[in-house]
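Example is below:
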Amino acid sequence: GLVTSIPRAGYMVTHITLREIQQWFQVRLILESAAVELAAANASEYTLKQLGEKSEFSYTHGDVNSYREFLRQNTVFHHQVALASGNPALANMLLQVLEKLERAFHLELGLRDSAAEMTSTHHRLIDALMARNANRAREIIRQEITDSQQRTAEALAGSGEMVFGSPGNYEQHE
């Protein structure tokens, strides 16, 4: 969870390590790559059209409240793409991974304004799914995840965010 209960002392924010974040990104890459391949084959035209309409969201760089709303909509979007695969178990596993990565995503959004890039990526993904091009959809999602992981690593390198543990201790949490 996001907080850890300390008996007779209260609560503290749970620390997560760079290694854990990297592992969650690896799991996301595996799950979401499979999900978009299946969605390209299995999603109805109606579902894909709805997903296209739901890909119209963004955030305002520097506005933390808009980050929260963007991340909520982004999680819903990615979960719905995974549901379009026809495999709800896969979609629910992906949802759990996205929730695990949420704190990392908050830091990533504050790094630089990537809103237009992210929106464009979502549009290209929907286009690939509508064209039933599973290979292209997989390439797009893999690049999106790789870019996200890179932005997160950059944000962590430049921040002293204690919720992620101190940078000098990342390798000690194996």
Notes: The helical segments are 18-42, 45-53, 64-83, 88-100, 102-111, 115-130, 134-158. The chain has a mean pLDDT of 87. The two ends are 18 Å apart (CA to CA).
